[in-house]
Design a protein that fits this description.
The structure is a homodimer.
Chain A (H helix, E strand, L loop, with lengths): L3 H11 L8 E2 L2 H7 L2 E6 L9 H10 L3 H6 L1 E4 L3 H12 L4 E6 L4 H9 L3 E5 L6 H12 L2 E2 L6 H20 L5 E6 L4 H13 L3 E8 L4 H8 L25 H8 L4 E3 L1 H15 L9 H8 L8 E6 L6 H11 L4
Parallel strand pairs in A: 2-10, 3-4, 3-6, 4-5, 7-8, 7-10, 8-9
Antiparallel strand pairs in A: 1-2
Helix pairs in contact in A: 1-3, 1-8, 3-5, 3-8, 5-6, 8-9, 9-11, 12-13, 12-14
C-alpha cells in the first residue's frame, strides 16, 4: 500500500525527469469563484498530463533485468503516452494495447514516443487475452493506470508540490479539487497532503452521470457508473473506484463534486483566456467545480488540479466557439 | 543604463510577485526543428505576458510619495495590463491611455485590473498631449514600455531564469530567440546572459516587413519600419529599436530572424498541441523561427521565449482551423 515514504521515494526518482508544474492564478477567475483560485497546471507535464509521473515512478522502480524485457499498458489516452515516454527514457521497450478505433492521433503520438502499439477490435477481440499472451511471451511487466501502489506514489508527488506551493502562497487551509477517474491521482495527493499540509483537503470532481467516486464516498462502498460513455470527459470515465484507491479516498478525501460537460467547456475557455493553458474536458472538471459550484466549497482559497491538456482540435474549437470571450 | 546589478536588484523586488515561468519542451517539437527546443513560457506570467516584470520593476522602485500620486502608461495591449496590475498590487493609481478603437476586451481587462482608462481618438487627438496634461495635473509618473532602464532590468529577470534553467538542462551553448518589438525584453535578457551564461546568445525574432531590429543590427544604425500595421503580430510592431535598447542589442545580440504571419500561426497551433500553452501571434515568433528556420540557428539546442498569450478567440480559432492537428 502506498504511503508517504513511497511518495517521497518516487519524488526522488522523478527529480530532474518530471516537470515541477506551476500553480497559476488570475484575478478574473477569483472574481468568478468568489475566492482565490489556484490551478496546478499538470497539463504542462511531459506528455500533457500527470500520468507521466505515475508511469515514471513505476518504470524507474523496476529491477534492471525486468525493465530490459519491457512494459505493457492498456490505454487509449494519457496513460499510454506517459508509459511510452517513461519507458523510452529508460531504454525499455513498451507495448501499448489500444482499441483500433482510438483517435488516430493518439495512436500516432504513442508510436512516435517509441512504443509498439498493438491494436485490437473492441467487438471481436479480448484485450486482456492479448495482453496476457504478449506479457508471457516476452516477459513484459504490466503497468496499471491507477490501481498500483507505485503509480499512486508517482501521482502523489503532485501533492508534495501542491503543499509547498500552497505554503508559499500563504494557504494553509483549503479544498484541493482533483479531476477523478479511478482515483490514482487524488489518492496520491491525499496521502501527500495528509502528511505535509493537513489543512488541505483533497476532493474529487467528476462529470455528471459518472460520479462513481462521489457516490462511493457517500455510501461507503464501491459504486459503479451505469454507462461507460456519454460524457466528453473521456480521460476520467472510469467505471468504478479502484480497490487500492478507494480505501485511501474513503479515509482522506472530502465529498465529491459533480460538473456538467458544458461547465467543463466553459472552464476550458476561461483557462484559455485567463491562464493561457490548454485543458481537455476531463482535465477541466476541477476548475469547473471551483468556478461554478462555489457554494459547495469551503475556505477563502481553492486549489484545483488541471490534470491534462490532450484535447483534439475539434473539441477545443467547440469550447472556444461556445464559450470563448468575444472581442 | 541598465546593468546586471540593476537586473539582480529587480529580481529581488520581483521575488514572490512575478511568476517563475517554466521552460517547456516536447520531443515532437525537437523532431520538427532537428534539435532540442526549449520554450520559456512567459505567456504564463501574470497578465499573460512578460510585460508584468518590467512594470513591477518600475513601480516597485518608485519612491513612496511619487507612487502614491500614481503612474501613467500608453498602451493598447500587454504593457497596459502589466502596469495596471503592478500598480494595483502596490496600491498606486494607474492611468492607461488607450485608443478608443482598441479591442473592447483589452479595455475592459485593463479597467478590471483597477486602472483608469482614458480613451482618445487616434484621428483627432494627440495621446502625448493628453498624457502630458494628466501627468502634470496629477503628478503621475510615466512608465515607458521599453526605453526605460528599470523596465529593461525587470525584463532581464527572464534572462536570469533562463540561465538557471538552461544549466539544469545541461545547456551551456545555444541561441536564445526572443520575440522583439522595441527591444526591452531582449536587451534585458542579453545583459543577464552576458553575465551569467555567456555561451547563450540572444537573437531577435520579428515579423516579415517589420524587421527594424534585424536591419538595424545589420546596418549598425537605427532603421525604421516602413509601415505601422499589416502583420497579425500586433504586440511586436514597434516602429524602431529604442535609444536605450539598441546599443545593448548591438553589443550583445546575434543576428535577427524573420518569420511570416503563417509561421506564427503554425507555431501557435504546435504550442497548443505539444506544449498545452496559448500564444498570441507576436508571442509565437521566436518559436516559429526555431521550428521553421533551423538552418539559420546554431547549436544542438535552441531556447525560445514565448513572450505572451493575449490572443483573441477569433485569431486563435483561425490558427487552429488552418494549422491545428486533425484527428
Amino acid at each position: 500500500m502506498t504511503d508517504i515514504a513511497m511518495i517521497r521515494a518516487a519524488a526522488g526518482r522523478l527529480d530532474g525527469h518530471a516537470r515541477r508544474t506551476p500553480l497559476l492564478s488570475s484575478p478574473f477567475l477569483d472574481e468568478i469563484a468568489g475566492r482565490r483560485v489556484f490551478v496546478k497546471a499538470e497539463c504542462l507535464q511531459h506528455t500533457g498530463s500527470f500520468k507521466f509521473r505515475g508511469a515514471w515512478s513505476a518504470v524507474s522502480a523496476m529491477e534492471d533485468d525486468e525493465r530490459t524485457k519491457g512494459v505493457i499498458a492498456f490505454s487509449s489516452g494519457n496513460h499510454a503516452q506517459g508509459v511510452a515516454l517513461a519507458a523510452r527514457e529508460h531504454g525499455a521497450p513498451a507495448v501499448i494495447i489500444m482499441p483500433e478505433d482510438a483517435p488516430r492521433m493518439k495512436i500516432e503520438n504513442t508510436r512516435a514516443l517509441g512504443a509498439e502499439v498493438v491494436l485490437y477490435d473492441r467487438a471481436t477481440e479480448d484485450r486482456d487475452e492479448i495482453g496476457d499472451r504478449l506479457s508471457k511471451e516476452r516477459g513484459l511487466t504490466l503497468i496499471k493506470p491507477f490501481d498500483e501502489p507505485l503509480v499512486v506514489a508517482g501521482q502523489g508527488t503532485t501533492g508534495l508540490e501542491i503543499a509547498e506551493q500552497a505554503k508559499a502562497e500563504g494557504i494553509d487551509n483549503a479544498d484541493v479539487i482533483v479531476c477523478c477517474g479511478g482515483g490514482g491521482l487524488i489518492s496520491g495527493i491525499a496521502l501527500a497532503l495528509d502528511d505535509t499540509a493537513p489543512g488541505l483537503r483533497a476532493r474529487p470532481a467528476e462529470p455528471e452521470g459518472f460520479d462513481d467516486v462521489r457516490r462511493s464516498l457517500a455510501s461507503g462502498g464501491i459504486e459503479r457508473n451505469n454507462s461507460a460513455f456519454g460524457s466528453i470527459c473521456d480521460a476520467i470515465l472510469t467505471p468504478a473506484p479502484g480497490k487500492i484507491t478507494f480505501p485511501i479516498m474513503q479515509r482522506l478525501c472530502g465529498p465529491g463534486l459533480v460538473v456538467t460537460d458544458d461547465e467543463c467547456l466553459k472552464a476550458m475557455a476561461l483557462a484559455f483566456a485567463r491562464l493561457k493553458i490548454v485543458l481537455e474536458p476531463g482535465g477541466a472538471a476541477a476548475l469547473a467545480a471551483a468556478l461554478f459550484h462555489p457554494d459547495e466549497i469551503e475556505g477563502e482559497s481553492v486549489i484545483c488540479v488541471a490534470t491534462g491538456g490532450n484535447v483534439d482540435t475539434k473539441m477545443f474549437l467547440s469550447a472556444l466557439t461556445k464559450f470563448g470571450p468575444s472581442q
